[in-house]
Structures are given as C-alpha cells and as structure tokens.
Amino acid sequence: MNSRKSFIAISALLIAAITLSVAAFGSSQDQDGVQAATVEINDKGFEPSTLKLKAGAPAKVTFVRKTDETCAKEVVLKDYKIERKLPLNEPVMVEFTPRKGEFVFACGMNMVKGKLIVE
Ligand SMILES: [Cu+2]
Q1: What is Dmax (Cα atoms) for the chain?
Q2: Considering only the top CATH level, what class is 3-118?
Q3: Ligand 1 mean position to 22 CA, how many Å?
C-alpha cells in the first residue's frame, strides 16, 4: 500500500470513528470548545433519549420536532431554567453551559422524557 492510499484509509477510519461517536451520544465539539448536539422529537419521543455532554463547555443543543403525534410540543430543561416551544419542523437551539450531573429534559407535562448526562 502506498502512503497516499494508507492516508486515505486512515482518514476514512477516523471519519467513521467520529461519526460513530456522534451517533452514539448525539454531540460533537468544535474548535472553540462549543459542544453541539441535535435532538429530534419523533413518534418514539426524544431521539437520542440520552444525551452526553461535557461539563463546563458551552453547549448548543438543537431540538427539532418532527411529529404532531406526541404531546412533546415544547422542551423543558428545568435545572437550567430552559423552556422553549417547538414549532413543527423548526429547529430550536438552546444554549447553556452544562454542569456535572444527570438532568432530565421533558415535554411541558413531564411525560415524554430524555436524559442529559454531563461528565
Ligand atoms: Cu407531554
């Protein structure tokens, strides 16, 4: 294998690894240290239902509601005093700096829930 081919192979592996870790935990971090994640609201509820973030780094979490079939038409992250309406198919970004611990994000009635794990 020449070096160009192995470079391509290694790059492909790296990209696959990054894609997998983003898919598993729903978040990624850019060069400024801002963490970004997207949570979809579909007929299964919040997806991913468990979101992992790092403590102390600013986070931008985008919620996109894709269904009218559940009661999750808003998202509440009580511990961070965040409460936002989620218009259908309109991404809503919430910004906060997570602190260590486990938190719940939920619909307005606290029925549809997701978990935020901050390490
Ligand atoms: Cu609800």
Answers
A1: 59
A2: mainly beta
A3: 27
β partners of residue 77: 82
Please report which helix (H) or strand (E) contains residue 69, including its range: none
Distance 73 CA to ligand 1 centre (A): 7
Tell me if the pTM is above 0.85: no
Asked if residues 94 and 84 have their Cβ atoms less than 8 Å apart, the reply is: yes
Ion ligand 1, residues whose Cβ is below 5 A away: 71, 107, 109, 111
Residue indicated by tokens 């592996």 = 13
For the cut 50, the answer to whether the pLDDT of residue 19 exceeds it is no
Q: What is the dihedral of CA 73, 78, 80, 82, to 10 degrees?
A: 30
